[in-house]
Amino acid sequence: FPLILGTSYRPGARFGPQAIRQASRHLRYNFHPVYQTEPFKSLQVADAGDVACNPYSIDEAIFQIETTATDLNKHTDAIVSLGGDHTIAVPLLRAANKKVKGPVALVHFDAHLDTWDTYFGAPYTHGTPFRRAAEEGLFMEDASMHVGIRGPLDQELGFKTIHCDELEKHGPDHVARRIRDRIGDHPLYLSIDIDVLDPAHAPGTGTPEIAGLTTRELLNILRGLAGVNLVAADIVEVSPAYDHAEITSLAAATIAYEMINLVVCRSR
């Protein structure tokens, strides 16, 4: 979903899906040694291509994304979406709600909360998706969590927050346990902004923040979620113009692969 109309700082996430696909050619993992899964034998995995997001109207682009995701959900167990900026989470959450016929649990990995009411006066931006989602009742307030935040806490909308300092002190296993305790068996939407990673691990993004997660920490947290009821996921804000040696796009491609394995683990 190459949407960038919600971007506020460094542009370029329009080309994120293309860069992630390119980096994924390096991944030749038919067998995952941690999950003990063979995802491409267990599931029929397909690339549905890019959605033709209107580059001039964010309202029209959001409608196009929701319509496409809703249609795809009729034929799939789960959608792993590649962004694009984080605005895409709103229409994707709407589509997930239609799929499960109700709100979902939400786990949001990000350096930022993305719960502004408006950003520069605009209601739909990459800084506001979870405010809009809360207003529409798209996620369960008692089964939602921010992870990796390097800023103020956010309890107004019902989120629990795991700050990077807590991860540093207690480690990935602790974080994974907290997430599992929070979401239970509810259908889960997993949203990962690549800027949750430290810029040393993901320089190619629009709004980098220092002192973030390492790639190993993020993968270990995700692997600690094996068996959760994952119904949809996104990986967003990859901006290849600021990347170096495909560091960021390779990280995003690997994260997407981990998400696919979580779908396999759910199905076992």
UniProtKB/TrEMBL annotation:
Keywords: Hydrolase, Manganese, Metal-binding. GO terms for molecular function: agmatinase activity; metal ion binding. Binds 2 manganese ions per subunit. Pfam families: Arginase (PF00491). It comes from the Eukaryota. Mn(2+) binds at residues 86, 110, 112, 114, 193, 195. Its cofactor is Mn(2+). GO terms for biological process: putrescine biosynthetic process from arginine, via agmatine. PANTHER family: ARGINASE/AGMATINASE (PTHR11358), GUANIDINO ACID HYDROLASE, MITOCHONDRIAL (PTHR11358:SF26). Belongs to the arginase family. Agmatinase subfamily. This is Guanidinobutyrase. The lineage of its organism: Eukaryota, Metazoa, Porifera, Demospongiae, Heteroscleromorpha.
